[in-house]
Design brief:
The protein has about 270 residues and is mainly α. The chain contains twelve helices and two strands; from the N terminus they run ααααααααααβααβ.
Length: about 270
Amino acid sequence: MSKNFNSLIPKVVSLLAQGTDGGNIILMLQNAGFEASFDSYNDAKKSKKDFVHEFFIKEYRNGNIPAFFKLADLITVKEYFRPGEYEYRYSEQDAKNLANEIRQSLQNDPPQKVYSEEERRELFYRIMNFHKGLHAVSKELFIKGHFEQCVFEASKFLENYIQNKINDRTTIGRDLIGKAFGGEDPKLTIYPLPMDKAQKNEQQGFCFLVMGETMFIKNRISHRASGSVIKTKSQCLKIISTISSILETIDSMYSAKTSDEINLDDIPF
């Protein structure tokens, strides 16, 4: 009984990583029809095994079956490999056996939907279930691949959101966040007043978190060359997740004056 190709990926990765260097692996992937580059490999700063494994998982999920069929042919071409150099190992017979397993598994695999890059990004965004306020300002930017602008607009939205919460449209940045969450008289609190020492520590920690997002992320994007801060989808998702978590926490806070939870209906999106 043939194996599912997904279960063969570790074997293919091991054959490549044990048999040759990163440069030859990238060359083989390119000749198989994958969109791989030396820059993407270097920028990933991962081991050969980790890089290739993650790359194959992504390409298989994206339905790039023709490239894997071609790869099955190429792993039997010994010129790509470097047995006898350093600690590289390669067996032509093992490669032929694995190539046959790859072909059989791919033939028996059910066809998979091929998603465009924009469709994949939209799926990512939907799965993350970000705060609803972010959808209007950052979703389309993320889908189109404008990752740095996506983060910048989300950061600006967070600041505007806080201004609306405390009814102050003139204070900005560090002063705004300190006024909203910090000091002895915060406008918004995690717990109803009066707070005990532990609760005050949490309040202060949250204030530092939001201040760090604004002073580090937002200001960094503002002051540096466009595209030099947020370069990848992964970076963007991680920061948007943090901003979304901050917004969700704010939504559950209390107004210091009334100790009532804030009414979300009062906040425009």
